[in-house]
Write a structure and sequence with these properties.
mainly alpha, 11 helices, 52% helix
C-alpha cells in the first residue's frame, strides 16, 4: 500500500492463520497460536485480569442467587478497568504522544471534532458510548451469567470436575470469537442494521476509546457471544474472561498503532492493520485472521495495492448487480 495513504503498513500481504493453508504447516500453526498467548501478550494479560477479578472483585455464587448490589459492583469493576486501560493507552499514544507516529497506521491527526460525533468531539463521543452503553451491557450479561450459574440454569463445572475442559475453554474462546464476530459483524453491515453500526464507524481513524464505542443494539449483539455458556459447561471465571476478552481486546486492537514500543523495541502487539483497513473502507475485512471467512466470501483485503484493486472491482460489480 502507498505510504502516502498510510503512515505505517506492515511489509507484504496480510496472512491468515496457517491452520487454513495447504499443504499443512504444523510448526507454523504452533507458532501462530503460541505467539497469540506467550510470552507477553494481550490474551495472557486479559486471562490474568479475569482470574484477579474473579478472586477479588466479584460476588460469590451464594450472593448471586438473587439480584442485588453485587450487580453494581460488577459494573463498577468493569468501568474502572476500561477507564484505566483505554484512558492509559490514550494518554500514552495521544495525550503525551510518547511514541509519536511510530507504528501509527493512519497519517491523519487524531482525535477529531465534528457534528458527526456526540458533543461534536470524538473522544467525548467514544467515552460516552463506551461507559454508558458498553460497560453496562457487558456487566448485565456477566450478571446474568453469575445468576444463571448460581441457580443451576447454566451448565456449571470446576477445575476438579473437568480439568482438561476447564483449561481448554480459555484457549477456545478466541476461536469462537473468530466465528461469532464475523457473522454478527456482517449482519451489522446489512441495510437493516447498519444504522446502529454507523455509530461505531464514525471513527474512520481510531483510538483506544473507539473500540467499544457502539450503539446499545450493537453492544447487545456483540456481547451476546456469551450466550454460548447456555450450552457449554463453564464457571464464573470463564464468563468473566469471555466478556473481558471481547471488551478489552476491542480497546487494545483499536489503538490505531500496531504495537507499544519501549526503548525502541515493540514489546506488545496491539492493533491489526487488517481491521484498520476495515475502518477506512467499511466493506472489507469483517472478521479476523484466525478463520479466513473474508477470503472465503470475497471480502478480504490483504493490505496490498492488488487487494485494493480487488476491493474496488468487487464493489463495482455489486453496484452493477
Amino acid at each position: 500500500m502507498s505510504r502516502a495513504e498510510w503512515n505505517h503498513a506492515p511489509d507484504g500481504a496480510i496472512q491468515v492463520s496457517p491452520l487454513w493453508q495447504w499443504p499443512p504447516r504444523p510448526l507454523a500453526v504452533l507458532k501462530w497460536y503460541s505467539d497469540a498467548w506467550f510470552p507477553l501478550t494481550i490474551n495472557l494479560g486479559i486471562l490474568a485480569l479475569a482470574f484477579l477479578s474473579w478472586g477479588l472483585f466479584s460476588p460469590t455464587l451464594e450472593s448471586a442467587l438473587t439480584p442485588d448490589w453485587w450487580i453494581f459492583g460488577i459494573w463498577l469493576r468493569n468501568a474502572v478497568i476500561v477507564t484505566l486501560l483505554a484512558g492509559g493507552l490514550h494518554y500514552w499514544f495521544h495525550g503525551i504522544a510518547a511514541q509519536g507516529t511510530d507504528l501509527k497506521f493512519d497519517p491523519r491527526p487524531f482525535p477529531r471534532q465534528g457534528r458527526m460525533f456526540s458533543f461534536s468531539d470524538q473522544i467525548k463521543d467514544n467515552m460516552f458510548w463506551t461507559i454508558l452503553s458498553g460497560v453496562t451491557v457487558w456487566s448485565l450479561f456477566e450478571a446474568l451469567g453469575w445468576w444463571g450459574l448460581a441457580n443451576g440454569w447454566l451448565p456449571y463445572t470446576t477445575l476438579a470436575q473437568m480439568p482438561v475442559w476447564f483449561i481448554a475453554f480459555f484457549f477456545l474462546i478466541p476461536v469462537w470469537e473468530s466465528f461469532y464476530f464475523y457473522w454478527i459483524h456482517r449482519l451489522l453491515h446489512t441495510n437493516t442494521l447498519y444504522r446502529f453500526h454507523a455509530l461505531h464507524h464514525r471513527n474512520t481513524d481510531i483510538g483506544p476509546w473507539s473500540g467499544l464505542s457502539m450503539h446499545p443494539v450493537e453492544h447487545v449483539m456483540y456481547f451476546g457471544t456469551v450466550l454460548i455458556h447456555l450450552v457449554v459447561p463453564s464457571s464464573p471465571v470463564h464468563v468473566i474472561f469471555h466478556l473481558m476478552f471481547y471488551a478489552l481486546l476491542a480497546i487494545t486492537s483499536h489503538t490505531g498503532f500496531e504495537g507499544l514500543r519501549v526503548r525502541n523495541k515493540k514489546r506488545v502487539h496491539l492493533g491489526n492493520f487488517h481491521h484498520q483497513i476495515h475502518h477506512r473502507y467499511f466493506e472489507v475485512n469483517y472478521g479476523n485472521l484466525d478463520v479466513p471467512w473474508d477470503k472465503l466470501f470475497g471480502s478480504f483485503h490483504d493490505g496490498t495495492d492488488a487487494g485494493k484493486a480487488m476491493m474496488r472491482e468487487r464493489l463495482k460489480n455489486r453496484k452493477r448487480g
